[in-house]
Amino acid sequence: MEYNQFFIFVWRFNAILILVAGLLAIPAAFASLASVAMKIIVKITRKNRRTINVVNVNHNDSSKYHKKSQKLQIGDFIEVDGTTYIMLQLYYTQSYSAKSTSSIINYLFLDSETGTSKWLFSNNDYLIKGFRLISETNNNTNNTGESISQVRAVLYQLMKQDTNGDGRLTNEKGMTIAFTHFNGNDYQEVLTGVDRFLGYKVINANSLLIVYKRDGIVYSAKVSLDNFALSNEKEIAKYEKLTSVS
């Protein structure tokens, strides 16, 4: 009987030790979990988050988008194939209370032979979402191993207006499609209010077909590579109004 009571005592004593050790381990485990959670929260909410394609156009804005600092810098070097010109991107970097942004706002055209240069725009108030170098054969890539045709024109996708009134130019609706010749001259806007630019196809040496979406409708149109006149605009699809087939 005494032998059994001794083992019962030992078992109870061990159980108490295990319980005490468990209770002591709980604060350490909780502290470890709290530390991990805090690191995750800091990572998610840190202020140096970076976004692309945003330009603040309301310089008196006192909201969370009000800029703390801004910086202009020259970016990528782009060869305009078949010509003596190169393009240099002007970037706009801006810090807000919540994040920072980096966007292309202008291009500098430089003649490598004469050293003369000109800006695409006289101001830096527009957001340039993208551009395309247009050649006669549609082949303006350097890695094809084939001869490269001279660039005839440059196509630009621009945001020029604050469409939702928040004081910023973003990737919202309301895009402008514009052209210049290879040297940045003869700037011409051919379309406004475009939701999405879908692509282009060179028809011949003097004509380009572009496809784009506006107000839920897909259009095609022709653009002259001589004077950038728009013609033959056609509605080709209303795909947002189509119903799925089961």
Produce the secondary structure layout.
Blueprint: H1 2-45, E1 50-52, E2 55-56, E3 67-79, E4 85-96, E5 100-111, E6 117-119, E7 127-135, E8 151-159, E9 168-169, E10 175-181, E11 188-194, E12 196-204, E13 207-214, E14 217-224, E15 230-237
Parallel strand pairs: 1-5
Antiparallel strand pairs: 2-9, 3-4, 4-5, 5-6, 7-8, 8-10, 10-11, 12-13, 13-14, 14-15
What is the share of helical residues? 10-25%
Silhouette: extended
Overall mean confidence score, pLDDT: 75
Distance between the termini: 80 Å
Largest sheet: 5 strands, mixed
Contiguous low-pLDDT stretches (5 residues minimum) are 40-52, 62-67, 139-145
Number of strand segments? 15
Cα-atom Rg, whole angstroms? 30 Å
H/E element string? HEEEEEEEEEEEEEEE
Strand content: over 45%
Number of H- or I-type helical stretches: 1
Given helix and strand content, the structural type is alpha+beta
